[in-house]
Amino acid sequence: MAQQVLLGDEAVALGAVHAGLSAGYSYPGTPASEIMEFLVRIAETEGGFTASWAVNEKVAYEEALGASFAGRRALVSFKHVGLNVAADPFMNSAMTGANGGLVVVSADDPGMHSSQNEQDSRFYARFAQIFCFEPADHQECYDMTREAFDVSEKLGLPVLIRLVTRLSHSRSSVETREARPQNGLRTGDWKDWTLLPVNARRRFALLLDRQAEMVRLSEASAANALRLNTGDRSLGIVASGIAANYFQEAEAQAGISPSFLKVSTYPPPEKLIRELVEHVETVLVLEEGYPLIERDIMGLFGVPGKKVTGRTSGAVPASGELSPDIVRKALGLAPLAAQPRPGIPLAGRPPQLCVGCPHADTFKALNKAREDRPGSNVFSDIGCYTLGAFPPYNAVQSCVCMGASVGMARGASDVGVRPAVAVIGDSTFAHSGITSLLDAATADTDMTVIILDNGTVAMTGGQPSFGTGDRLLRIIEGVGVPKEHIRIIEPLPKNHEKNVGIIREEMDHHGLSVIVAVRECIQEARKRRG
Amino acid sequence: MKQDIILAGVGGQGILSIAYVIDNAALAEGLRFKQAEVHGMAQRGGAVVSHLRLSSGRIWSDLIPRGEADMILSVEPLEAVRYFDYLGPDGVVVTSSTPYTNIPDYPDVDAILSAVRTAKRSVVVDSETLAREAGTSKAQNMVMLGAASGFLILKRESLLSLVESLFKARGPGVVEANLKAFELGRRAAATS
Question: Among A91, A172, A355, B145, which residue is least crowded by beta carbons within 10 Å?
Answer without folding.
Answer: A355
